[in-house]
Amino acid sequence: MISILIPCYDYSVYNLVCELKNQCDTVAVEYEVICQDDASGSELNRENEKINALHNCFFYSNTENLGRGKNRNSLALQAKYDWLLFLDCDTKPTTSSFIQNYLNAIENLKISAVFGGLAYDTNQPKSNQLLRWVYGKKREAIGYLERKKNPYATTLTSNLVIKKSVFESIRFSNSITQYGYEDALFIANLKKQNIHIEHIDNAVFHLNLETSLLFLEKTKVALNNLVDLSEQGDFSEKESKLITQYNRLKKLGLAALTGRLFRFFESVLQSNLVSKNPKLVLFDLYKLGYFCQKKSRL
Questions:
Q1: In this predicted model, what pLDDT tens digit does every residue of 159-168 receive, in sequence order?
Q2: What's the CA gap between 179 and 223, in Å, rounded?
Q3: Alpha-carbon distance 243 to 227, whole Å?
Q4: What distances in angstroms separate CA 296 from CA 217, 254, 281, 289, one per listed residue?
Q5: Residue 113 and residue 200: Cα distance in Å, rounded?
Q6: Residue 144 pLDDT > 70, yes or no?
Q7: Residue among 228, 280, 227, 289 at smallest CA distance from 261
Q8: What number is the average pLDDT over the span 204-226?
Q9: Is 48 exposed, middle or buried (0-12, 13-18, 19+ CB in 10 A)?
Q10: Helices 212-232 and 241-251, interaxial angle, to 10°?
């Protein structure tokens, strides 16, 4: 009845799969768990290969890198059930009723997609990982009642159940091969097709916290994708506050200036963001400045 799909990127998913299998067996649902490493070459795949010894569970490793969108699409093509549960490899259910909660939700025949939410450990991580943790707790770990008020803007594909037929009508973009905005574009396309996303209280913990410096580098890669998407017409002000802010600055003749100021102040902003007290307002300025720099071809 449900295919659980886990794209892997240099991360061990054996324990996650065991937990999901145990929950599925407990509620006696037809299921499969399919994990697919995107040619990372990670030594962790030796542990991941133990998944193939588990009933209804499979681990594959691509011989060539497909990219984030294609890897997810490939997983969906292999799925044999009508409902797909996409989970990021670095997540863990917050409750032992995680699978049952989703099964209860999809009993409603009107539902096409369900997002359960994201959570972060309350214990503070290492000082060099604080930016990702602070950002996640403030911007991603949103209660389901609050998420319901703005269902598309608060949905992430790291914990999403969707009808296979609906997924096949949209799919992830094959053009995005690097980190960032492949999920936002997918959600934007759901919105364009008026596919309602139901929100429930069924979160997973986000476990893997990269260093603040690496998170900044990944943010730049993601913003490069956003620049391309905006120029291709795939993303507009309706889908991105950052594009809205850029357009306002451009109308005032300040976009290029903002990009130049970013080049001057980037190291100052970075000093705070990799510190023990990162400020999200400065992170927002960092993203806007970098976006203006790239859009202005500076």
A1: 999 999 999 9
A2: 9
A3: 9
A4: 20, 10, 22, 10
A5: 11
A6: yes
A7: 289
A8: 93
A9: buried
A10: 70
Nearest 5°: CA angle at 134, between 130 and 137?
A: 140
- Distance in angstroms (rounded) separating the CA atoms of residues 242 and 222: 12
% of the chain beyond a pLDDT of 90: 79
Residues written for the chain: 298
d(CA 8, CA 35): 7
**Side chain identity at residue 227, one-letter code:** V
The dihedrals phi and psi of 247, each to the nearest 5 degrees, come to: -65, -35
Q: Which residues pair with 37 in a beta bridge?
A: 8, 61
Number of CB atoms found within 10 A of residue 28's CB = 7
Contact in structure between 206 and 194 (CB atoms under 8 Å): no
What is the SS3 string spanning the chain?
A: CEEEEEEECCCCCHHHHHHHHHHHHHHCCCEEEEEEECCCCCCCHHHHHHHHHCCCEEEEECCCCCCHHHHHHHHHHHCCCCEEEEECCCEEECCCCHHHHHHHHCCCCCCCEEECCEECCCCCCCHHHHHHHHHHHHHHCCCHHHHHHCCCCCCCCCEEEEEHHHHHHHCCCCCCCCCCCHHHHHHHHHHHCCCCEEECCCCEEECCCCCHHHHHHHHHHHHHHHHHHHHHCCCCCCCCHHHHHHHHHHHCCCHHHHHHHHHHHHHHHHHHHCCCCCCHHHHHHHHHHHHHHHHCCC
Given a cut of 90, whether residue 133 has pLDDT beyond it is yes
